[in-house]
C-alpha cells in the first residue's frame, strides 16, 4: 500500500485521521502526535531541553490544543530527555523505564555533555523526568473523543518497548521496535533473541492498511514490518545456531551470513550469547529461551 511519507526536511505530515508525524534531523527521530478533543498526545519528546523546546514550538504550529499526554516508547535519551519540558502533561511509559532512567540517566547525560559546548549547556539544564503513569502490558488513554492503546509487546530494542496504537485511524507508532532509516539498533540493553517474538506480537496489531510510524525514519506499512521481522528472526536464529555449534563468540560475525552489516551486530551477538549461556543450554526454535510460552497476541480494542 502507499503510505504518507514523513517529510525528512521537517514538517508535520498527517499519517492518519488526526495523527501526525515529524522527522527531525537530530538522530533522525520521528515524533508522533495524536489529536483528541481533550488535547494532544505526543509520542516521544526528543533528546534534551533544547530539542524539546523546538518540538513544543512546532506543536504550536500544528494545534492550539494543550499537550495533555506524553508516551515514552522506551527509555533512551533521544526519546525521553525532553520529558522535563512536558512536566504539565501525564507521561506514560513501561514500568521498567523509571528504574532504568534512574540507573543510567546520569551516565548518558555526562556522555552527551562531552559531545560539544552546546550539548554541555543543554545537559546542564536537563531535568531527568521519568514517566509518572506506568504499566506492565497494556494501557488505554482516553483523549475525549477517541482512545489510544499503549502496548508492551515484549522485549526487543529494550526491556520497555511500547507501541502506540490508534484504532480509529489504523495508525501505530512503533518506537524503535521498527526502524526505517537504518537497521534495527542492537544496543547493550537489547534482547536479540526475544525481538522476533516481540515483533510478531507487534505485527498482530496491524492490518494490511495500517500506517506504521517508526522511531527513526519514514512512515512504513505492514509489509515493511513483516520484512524486518524476517531479518531480526534471521539474526536470532543465526546466533542460536552458531552457539549450538560451539562457534566462539569472537568468531561468530565472521563465519556466517547476516541480514545486516556485521559492524551493526556486535552487541546482538554478545547479548545473544550471554542470554544463551544464562539459559543453561542452547535451545532450538524461533521463540528462544527468553520468550514466554504461548505469548503471541493481546486483547485490543477495535479487533
TrEMBL record:
<dbReference type="Pfam" id="PF00753">
    <property type="entry name" value="Lactamase_B"/>
</dbReference>
<dbReference type="InterPro" id="IPR001279">
    <property type="entry name" value="Metallo-B-lactamas"/>
</dbReference>
<protein>
    <submittedName>
        <fullName>Glyoxylase, beta-lactamase superfamily II</fullName>
    </submittedName>
</protein>
<feature type="domain" description="Metallo-beta-lactamase">
    <location>
        <begin position="28"/>
        <end position="216"/>
    </location>
</feature>
<feature type="region of interest" description="Disordered">
    <location>
        <begin position="278"/>
        <end position="303"/>
    </location>
</feature>
<dbReference type="InterPro" id="IPR050855">
    <property type="entry name" value="NDM-1-like"/>
</dbReference>
<feature type="compositionally biased region" description="Low complexity">
    <location>
        <begin position="280"/>
        <end position="294"/>
    </location>
</feature>
<dbReference type="InterPro" id="IPR036866">
    <property type="entry name" value="RibonucZ/Hydroxyglut_hydro"/>
</dbReference>
